[in-house]
Predict the structure.
Amino acid sequence: MTKSFLDPHHPRLLCECCELPTRIVPSLPPAIADYKSTSTSCPLCEWENAPVDKHGQTIADSNEQATERNGGHTLAESQSNFRRFLSMYDPAQLEPWMPEPPTAEELRWKEELVRLYKRILDPYAVDGRESLKQILALERVLADAEQARVSDEEVPIETSDDEETAEPTAPQYWRKGDAGIRHFTNTGGEGEVWPPIRKQGDEPGAAPTQKQINDHN
């Protein structure tokens, strides 16, 4: 793995797919790069990289392992998609966990990040520190936007045997939100109108009738 040192205390690793310095290397005191703890996921193109050793060198694996690690997508396919869509995924063929493609605003932020990443890779650039500040800010904005975009996905909770013996309640759901996975449930008076699955932050609604539960399922 080629290393990209922005300065001695802020190393980054290049992503195998987009080949940009997107992977921040954590630091241990006193300012020691902890390469083995570097995230394998690229926040820009979403490729899942191979892990690295304590020196920042890629732990070699096969093309088949890389494809399996990335949900059946090959590196060549993902790189082709990134050149066209700024993502390893084709927006016309959404993954099951993607409720909608990236917004135009997200794509503009990605374009600016690509420009800045290339800037800090330029050995003749004199504004590397300022570019790094802009990168860190844009990375946070993009991460928040992507999290908000996928936060509408609801996944039914699997109840345990102990929970099944308790008094029946309205269906419960997990929702992805800004603070991670949150637990939601509709509760209230029997026989009242059951509202649709509510957005994050809404107050609990009325419980459904048994017929409404059956119709929903």
Remarks:
- The two ends are 49 Å apart (CA to CA).
- The chain has two domains: 3-149, 154-216.
- The beta strands are 3-5, 11-13, 23-24, 27-28, 32-33, 154-156, 172-177, 180-185.
